[in-house]
Design a protein that fits this description.
Number of strands: 25
Strand content: over 45%
Structural class: mainly beta
Distance between the termini: 45 Å
Order of helices and strands: EEEEEEEEEEEEEEEEEEEEEEEEE
Length: 266
C-alpha cells in the first residue's frame, strides 16, 4: 500500500538567519535522504535533488509537496537547473534528464559526459544549457537538445561542483580546487578567478543585482561583488553548505549537510 507522508516546518531565528527545517517521514521510502541540490523555478516550484536519486518538487507558495520525479536516476542527483520556460534539468551519473515543468514527465536524456559524472547544471535565458563535470570541464549545449555539446571550457585543476549564470553575460563555476572561475558567455574566455574558500566550493548563486553567493565544505557562505569579484561578506555556518538558491525578494535559500534548508535575508 501507499506509504503515509508527514511534513512539517520548524523555524529557528538567530538574528537575520531563519532556519526552516522540513521533517519528512515516508517521502523517501521511509528513510531520510540527504539534500544534494536545489533549484527554484519562476513558477514557484522548488526542486530538491536527493542522495537516493529522486527529485522532490515543492510549492514555495503553499509549502506543499507536489510530486517525486523518479525515472532513470539511480545515483545521487548532484545537479539541478530550471529554464525560463519551466523545463527542469537534473544531472546524475553521466546523464542529464530533461523534465516537463507542467507535468513532471521525462522529456529526454542527454549524455552529459563520457568520462566522469555530471556535477553541475545551469540554463541561460535563451535556453542554452551548461553542464560541469568531474573531469574538470564545462560543456555548452545548444537549445536543440538533439545536438551534441557545442563548446567545452577548461581552466579548473579539479572537478566542477557548481555553475551559475548572471544577467550580464557571465558564467561562474565553482570547483573542488577551492576557486570560482568567471567566464564570458559570449566567447568562453575566462575573465577572473575568485579565491577565498579553503575547501571545495560546493555551490554558487547569483542575485538579481549581480551579487554572487558561494558555499563551501569549509562551512562558510561568502558574498562577492558581481562587478569586480571583490569579497563583500563571510558567514560562518554550522555545517557544510551543499546548495544555494535565490528566491523572491533576494532571499537566499541554503541547503546543508545536516539535511536542513535555511532562508537568509541579507
Amino acid at each position: 500500500g501507499a506509504t503515509a507522508k508527514k511534513q512539517a516546518w520548524q523555524w529557528r531565528w538567530d538574528g537575520r538567519l531563519a532556519t526552516r527545517t522540513l521533517l519528512e517521514d515516508g517521502v523517501c521510502h521511509g528513510r531520510a535522504s540527504a539534500i544534494r541540490s536545489l533549484a527554484i523555478g519562476a513558477n514557484g516550484k522548488l526542486y530538491v535533488g536527493k542522495e537516493d536519486g529522486t527529485v522532490h518538487v515543492w510549492s514555495t507558495v503553499a509549502n506543499t509537496h507536489l510530486q517525486i520525479l523518479r525515472r532513470g536516476h539511480t545515483r545521487p542527483v548532484r545537479a539541478l537547473a530550471v529554464g525560463k520556460d519551466g523545463t527542469a534539468f537534473s544531472g546524475s551519473g553521466s546523464f542529464i534528464r530533461v523534465w516537463s515543468g507542467d507535468t513532471g514527465s521525462c522529456l529526454g536524456t542527454l549524455v552529459g559526459v563520457t568520462s566522469g559524472d555530471v556535477t553541475a547544471l545551469a540554463v541561460g535565458v535563451d535556453g542554452t544549457l551548461y553542464s560541469g563535470s568531474s573531469n574538470h570541464t564545462i560543456r555548452v549545449w545548444s537549445t536543440d537538445r538533439a545536438l551534441p555539446a557545442t563548446r567545452t571550457l577548461s581552466g579548473h585543476s579539479r572537478g566542477i561542483s557548481t555553475l551559475a549564470l548572471s544577467g550580464d553575460g557571465k558564467l561562474y563555476s565553482g570547483s573542488e580546487d577551492c576557486t570560482i572561475c568567471v567566464w564570458s558567455v559570449s566567447d568562453g574566455t575566462r575573465l577572473a578567478t575568485l579565491k577565498g574558500h579553503t575547501q571545495q566550493v560546493t555551490t554558487v548563486a547569483v542575485g538579481i543585482d549581480g551579487t554572487v553567493y558561494s558555499g563551501s565544505d569549509d562551512r562558510t557562505l561568502r558574498v562577492w561583488s558581481g562587478l569586480d569579484g571583490s569579497p563583500v561578506r563571510r558567514l560562518q555556518l554550522d555545517a557544510s553548505v551543499t546548495t544555494i538558491a535565490i528566491g523572491a525578494g533576494s532571499t537566499v535559500v541554503i541547503g546543508d549537510g545536516s539535511n536542513r534548508v535555511s532562508a537568509w535575508n541579507g
